[in-house]
Write a structure and sequence with these properties.
The structure is a homodimer. Chain A is built from 12 helices and 10 strands. Chain A is α/β, with parallel strands linked by helices. The first copy, chain A, has a single domain, classed as TIM Barrel (Alpha-Beta Barrel), CATH 3.20.20. In chain A, the strands form 2 sheets. Chain A has an 8-stranded parallel sheet with strand order 2-1-10-9-8-5-4-3. Chains A and B meet through helix 3, helix 5, helix 7, strand 6 and helix 8 of A and helix 3, helix 5, helix 7, strand 6 and helix 8 of B.
């Protein structure tokens, strides 16, 4: 299934805009798991199986696997999601950014080796750094636009030709998106900017990190970013869900946190 | 040894500004190697051993390993360089870009797992996406500034507040560089822009891709980018060197190409 169709099904059939981010920091894993050789996989699988019916997507962050020589666990995790929860697409958060044959290799890494349904990509190198991913028409390509960290303003908020750099990225994404594959990352800490981006890109999906541990306001995020049908958002929460408990009840605690977040989001979906 | 000191030694003692990029595309490897399980490692090791005395750095591109589940070969390649050619630093070209604990994990991946001496990083997310790498004071952190691909102008060439975005990146890098760790990527196809960046950053090293297969002019690059002492540049060539021959003589052909490129660069170093 195409990524965009899978996301749409999550929004409508499972009635959720929540994306759970899988950032398995070894220092924060439940004590009972820590010494297992497959601790990262076991932890993430527990979270996945406890929350799959509550999410529109899962988003593993590749750095947490790569730093610990655990690419095999990332492969196994994504294969597990596809097998056990075939309706839930996987966004590989890797923020790749390079050109030509190198970007082609990154596409093979994400889509073929890891089997991801979508990949986050950095737009700084421009259109020919996006092009190689568009050769995979079923896959989602999610460009960084306006990030929620303090340094996000250093470049993204510069004003050039009457608009901010992040607004230019949104307009460029609309131009580049010949197959309906693109989406944008827009941080939850800036609701006005979510609304600006939504105004530029029409129905294009937005991936919104920063809700939960990073302090973004759910109501402001949803009302600023929803489409007219109350969809269009993948609202990511990582730490507030996956580290809801450090004990052996971590999966149940993650489910409770995911349920509360999904419901809080859904309160504000109807225009 | 600190990355910056190792690069300086290459410029002065080995008298070379050449950086050889290791982009081992499986489709372009010598036929004799292709079916070996460690083809990528064997190929790169052949290039490394044939050219180490001619370079100031090696720059493996991680995508070519990651796409083919060959992280172990990348680890072995960098370990081989450190063991056999301990004076030659390794730049891991991965163009990472993320924040906080995720960037900390990328730093562990590059500097601890792979043992790289420097890492390329994307500046789009701003200062707090650079900060975690600066916690490794011996390591080099090489920010994308002005890239040589056609799409490089989409964002980098926007004019904001009287300067181009890439010029702003150069000025920010100067501000952020409290330990003398930063360097910048500036493409060889834009000599005037290399000169602009050199004018902003003083003695900061510049990594210049685009010479060779990408068509950048060596004389224009060197005269635009050299420091007053005739150093300051890591001029990268990948394909023109590593694919100089597709036959079994690939290593000797790479050496001949590297020698010619180093000498052509050195013709223009003296002001």
């Amino acid at each position: 299934m195409r990524f965009i169709d899978a996301i749409n099904e999550g929004w409508t059939r499972r009635d959720t805009l929540l994306c759970v981010g899988l950032d398995p920091d070894p220092a924060r894993l439940p004590v009972a798991l820590r010494d297992r050789p497959d601790a990262i996989l076991t932890f993430c699988r527990g979270i996945v199986d406890a929350t799959a019916d509550l999410v529109c997507a899962f988003k593993p962050q590749i750095a947490y696997f790569a730093a610990h020589r655990a690419e095999d666990q990332l492969e196994a995790l994504i294969a597990h999601i596809h097998e056990r929860h075939p309706d839930v697409p996987v966004i590989l958060d890797a923020k790749r950014g390079d050109i030509g044959s190198t970007a082609e290799q990154y596409a093979v890494e994400a889509f073929q080796r890891f089997g991801a349904d979508a990949l986050t990509v950095n737009p700084y190198m421009g259109h020919d750094s996006i092009e190689p991913y568009l050769a995979w028409p079923d896959k989602g390509v999610i460009l960084l636009c306006r990030t929620s960290n303090p340094g996000g303003s250093d470049l993204q908020f510069l004003e050039a030709g009457g608009e901010r750099v992040f607004e230019r990225v949104a307009r460029l994404a609309l131009d580049w998106d010949r197959n309906g594959q693109l989406a944008l990352v827009v941080g939850a800490t800036f609701p006005q900017e979510i609304a600006r981006v939504r105004g530029i890109v029409g129905e294009m999906p937005l991936l919104v990190p920063g809700v939960g541990a990073q302090g973004g306001d759910v109501r402001a995020t949803v009302t600023a970013g929803r489409t007219r049908s109350g969809n269009g958002l993948m609202i990511n929460s990582s730490r507030a869900i996956i580290y809801a408990s450090r004990g052996e009840d971590y999966a149940a605690a993650a489910r409770a946190a995911a349920l509360a977040t999904r419901d809080e989001i859904n309160r504000w979906r109807e225009p």
